[in-house]
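Pilot study result, target chain (118 residues):
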Amino acid sequence: MKRPLLILIAGPYRSGADGDPARIAQNLARLEEASGPLYRLGHVPMIGEWVALPILRTLSESDAGEGDVMYETARRLLQHCDAVLRLPGASAGADTDVAIARERGIPVYFSIEEVPAA
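Predicted structure:
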């Protein structure tokens, strides 16, 4: 068995939601739907929002500093990830995740079927 990969699931979170909390929650649920299949393949799924949302809840606006905590968290996470699973849908953040992954030379998958089992 190959070692399990830490795979960042990237796709729309805020994109297309127009700030509507219900639509944002639907987007997060869609990202999370990919976590089970990745786990069954023997990998460790990761979603940037799982890490960024608690950070956002604990930082004041001035503490967050310049930039977007969501994007910065994903950028930092990608230093530890072995691959990215890019789900369909328009998302500047997910597109940035793909670009960073390609710069780092880590695989980018566009469907669960492309992900090799561990």
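One observation from the pilot: The radius of gyration is 14 Å. A full batch analysis is planned for the follow-on phase.
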